[in-house]
């Protein structure tokens, strides 16, 4: 395989499925662009299995390092893996690591990376807030004045 992935219109795949699938001998994956919908990825099953093996290994290695007391080492290399984590307070970086280890293990066992992606995106958004003093000030400021009536729980808004 020479390239990581190729992109092409979904319609090409519909018109020439065998030829497009044969491209997977030369590329790792094919991104099928769709109008008005999320793109799709075409990947060989054996490639998907290899990816899952690497993810499982990585999550178990990370958890093993943490259990062996190497949290300082993990914390030290965190900015290399997640450069935006430099904006998080130290307590939040520790919480990120703890949550990441737990979610990575669970995700690997389910072969579902979605929860890891969601967790990282949530923490990245937190780092964006800490990185912007004006946004941080707005979010952490005490509200001023009356914010209006609050509907009872379960009542129509």
Outline of this structure?
By secondary structure, this protein is mainly alpha-helical.
The assembly state of the depicted protein chains is: single chain
The biggest beta sheet reads:
3 strands, mixed
Strands, count: 3
User: Percent helix among the residues?
Assistant: 55-70%
Our measurement of the CA-to-CA distance between the termini, rounded to an integer number of angstroms, reads 56 Å
Summarize this structure as a short list of keywords or feature phrases.
2 domains, single chain, 157 residues, mainly alpha, three-stranded mixed sheet, extended, 59% helix, 7 helices
Secondary-structure topology with pairs:
Blueprint: E1 3-9, H1 10-15, H2 17-22, E2 27-33, E3 40-43, H3 45-67, H4 71-81, H5 90-110, H6 114-131, H7 133-140
Helix pairs in contact: 3-5, 5-6
Description of the structure:
There is one protein chain. Helix content is 59%, strand content 11%. It is built from seven helices and three strands; from the N terminus they run E-H-H-E-E-H-H-H-H-H. It has a three-stranded mixed beta sheet with strand order 1-2-3. A hairpin with a 6-residue loop joins strand 2 and strand 3.
């Amino acid at each position: 395989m020479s390239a990581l992935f190729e992109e092409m219109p979904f319609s090409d795949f519909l018109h020439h499925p065998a030829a497009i699938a044969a491209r997977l001998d030369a590329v790792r994956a094919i991104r099928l662009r769709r109008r008005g919908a999320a793109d799709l990825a075409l990947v060989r099953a054996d490639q998907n299995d290899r990816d899952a093996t690497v993810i499982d290994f990585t999550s178990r290695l990370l958890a093993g390092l943490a259990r062996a007391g190497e949290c300082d080492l993990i914390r030290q290399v965190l900015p290399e893996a997640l450069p935006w984590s430099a904006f998080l307070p130290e307590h939040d970086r520790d919480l990120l690591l703890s949550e990441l280890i737990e979610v990575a293990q669970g995700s690997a066992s389910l072969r579902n990376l979605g929860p890891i992606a969601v967790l990282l995106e949530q923490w990245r958004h937190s780092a964006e807030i800490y990185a912007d003093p004006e946004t941080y000030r707005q979010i952490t400021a005490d509200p001023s004045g009356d914010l209006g009536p609050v509907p009872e729980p379960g009542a129509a808004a």
